[in-house]
Automatic annotation (TrEMBL):
Taxonomic lineage: Bacteria, Pseudomonadati, Pseudomonadota, Betaproteobacteria, Burkholderiales
Domain of life: Bacteria
Organism: Variovorax boronicumulans
Official protein name in the record: DUF1488 domain-containing protein
Length: 88
C-alpha cells in the first residue's frame, strides 16, 4: 500500500488514508499528531519531515490504524503515543 497523506498545519498533524480491506475496499482516514511523531518516532522537524516519517514508518502506522478501526469502526482514528509504546 502506498502512502497517501498530507501535513495539516492547522491541526499539527498528518492525515493519511488506510484501506483495511485492500485497495478495492473502503478508504478510511486516520491522523497522527506532531507530538506523537516526536514521542514515538523521534521526529524533530515539522512539515515535510512529518510526511517523510510517516512514509518511513507506514507499515506500523497502517497496522495500528487498522487495529483501531476494527475495534471501533465508527470512531475517528487519531493515533497517540500509547498506540506505539511497544514500537518505540
Amino acid at each position: 500500500m502506498d502512502f497517501e497523506g498530507i501535513y495539516c498545519f492547522d491541526t499539527a498533524s498528518v492525515r493519511f488514508a488506510v484501506y483495511p480491506d485492500g485497495p478495492e475496499g473502503a478508504r478510511i482516514v486516520a491522523q497522527i499528531s506532531e507530538d506523537t511523531l516526536h514521542d514515538a518516532f523521534g521526529v524533530r522537524e515539522i512539515g515535510d519531515a512529518m510526511i517523510d516519517a510517516c512514509k518511513a514508518h507506514f507499515d506500523v502506522l497502517v497496522a495500528v490504524a487498522i487495529a483501531r478501526y476494527r475495534a471501533a469502526p465508527r470512531q475517528p482514528i487519531t493515533l497517540t503515543p500509547d498506540d506505539f509504546s511497544v514500537h518505540a
